[in-house]
Amino acid sequence: MTRAKLYVLAVILAQLSAPAFAASSVCTALASPPACTDPECSERELESLHLVPADNPIAVPNAVSQAVTDFLCAGRYAGWRHDLSPRTNNIRLTGPFIDTSPTTTRALTTHAQVRVYYSKGVVKWLEGGRQGAIPDGAMIVKEMFALPVYAPVGKTPSPSGWAVIVRNSRISHDGWLWYLFYLPHNQTTKIEFQSVQYGMSFCISCHSSSDRDQGTFAFLGNLQGHDAATYVATRPVVTHDKTNLTPDTLSGNPHERFASVNTLLDQMMYKPTLSPNDAINVDLWRLLRKRAGLSERPDTTDFARLPQDAVYDHVVAPAGETKRLFLTSDACSGCHDASDLLNTVDPNMTVPFPVARFPMANVSPYGEWSGSLMAVSARDPVFRSQLESELVSLSSPDARAQVQQLCMSCHEVMGERQDPALARQPGSDYAVVSRRETSHDRATIEKATFGALARDGVSCTVCHHIAPEKLGTKESFTAHFETGPAAEVYGPYPDVKTHPMKNAIGLTPMHGAQIENAGLCGSCHVVDVPVFSGDGTLAKQPYAHEQTTYLEWANSAYAVKGREYQTCQDCHMPRTNPVTKQPLATSIVNIEDTTFPYVPNRADSDQLDTVVRDSYWRHTLTGINVFVMAMFQEFPLILGSNTFLPNRAPNVLPPKTLALGEALEQARERSADLHIEGVTFGPEQLDVQVRVMNLAGHKLPSGVGFRRAFLEFSVLDKSGDVIWCSGCTDDLGVIVDGDGNRLASEFATQPNELQPDYARITKETQVQIYESRHVDCAGALTTSFVHLCDEVKDNRILPKGWSSSGPFAEETRPKAVSGKISPGVDVVSYSIPRREIPQAAAIRVALHYQSIPPYYLVDRASLLGGGAAGAAHPEAERLLYMVLHLGLADPQVGAASWKVPLACQQRPIKDGDEKPCLKAESGSP
Question: How many CB atoms sit inside 10 A of residue 697's CB?
Answer without folding.
Answer: 28
